């Protein structure tokens, strides 16, 4: 079972989570809703999964350093779960490391900006529906556990 | 804009919200996720919207008293948003008031039991997808506001 913590104070967040915070705010201004640390399937966890007004699915991986990026061997596995794939980094990140056919977002803890739009590889309809249902399940369950922590026993 | 409060202590909940609390716990044991006070469209707000493992959509209206039930002129409008429609009441409620072709759940603040399964009127595929997307949006947005209250400015 997943562990859910109370809403975090900014001081307690890790560098990647600070980037995610700014990314989620910025995407909200584009009409997207977001989940952090979403698990599209067992063994994979994406930093930010976003759903747009037309159920567009974007994945954003947040990298706080060169080492953080170099140690990520899983990102290509996320491409099958989204229409567009982005990296979110701070402005000191060596962006020449990032693959060109992916999106780029500059972020800090307070906001973000899309620097390069990711190419679109549209999900098939059935896959999109499955991802949206999983997204809905994940968000509603976390929300339930926050409003009634004892509810975790019932899942 | 919707007002979001921190997770509630049980002492602060209204009678209908206490029933909803037990309903949400019980539905979790059936593999359903739930949202309270969901707005399927402007001007309508359902007490509990539940989504099952196959994206089954159930609506549960929680009635704490005869007066609470008699003053509800809107419930038939919710039938178009779900596969099954239920009432949730406590064990002292005069259940003979409730329409026979609806489901019945006995609830308290801690758990609930399905007494009469609601008949199924399956949503069309496009409507189901729209409801699931709205459910996902609603849950993710509330969750975002809880983890980052300042994010409300970005929506």
What does this structure look like?
2 copies of one chain form a homodimer. Chain A is α/β, with parallel strands linked by helices and 155 residues long. Chain A has one domain. The first copy, chain A, is 28% helix and 22% strand. Chain A has helices spanning 15-29, 66-70, 125-147; strands at 33-38, 46-51, 57-62, 84-89, 103-107, 112-116. The first copy, chain A, has a 6-stranded mixed sheet with strand order 1-2-3-4-5-6. In chain A, strand 3, helix 2 and strand 4 form a beta-alpha-beta unit. The longest helix of chain A has 23 residues, at 125-147.
Map the helices and strands:
The structure is a homodimer of 155-residue chains.
Chain A: H1 15-29, E1 33-38, E2 46-51, E3 57-62, H2 66-70, E4 84-89, E5 103-107, E6 112-116, H3 125-147
Parallel strand pairs in A: 3-4, 4-5
Antiparallel strand pairs in A: 1-2, 2-3, 5-6
Keywords:
homodimer, 155 residues, alpha/beta, 6-stranded mixed β-sheet, 3 helices, 28% helix, 22% strand
Quick summary:
The structure is a homodimer of 155-residue chains. By secondary structure, the first copy, chain A, is of the alpha/beta class.
Euclidean distance between termini CA atoms of chain A: 9 Å
Unreliable stretches covering 5 or more consecutive residues of chain A: none
Helix content of chain A: 25-40%
Regarding quaternary structure, how should these chains be classified?
A: homodimer
Greatest contact between two chains: A-B, 34 and 34 residues
Question: Order of strands across the widest beta sheet of chain A?
Answer: 1-2-3-4-5-6
The whole-angstrom Rg of chain A is 15 Å
Identify the overall geometry of chain A: globular
Helix/strand/pairing class of chain A, anyone?
A: alpha/beta
Bin the strand percentage of chain A: 15-25%
Q: Indicate the mean pLDDT of chain A.
A: 92
The largest pleated sheet of chain A is described as: 6 strands, mixed
**In sequence order, what are the helices and strands of chain A, one letter per element?**
HEEEHEEEH
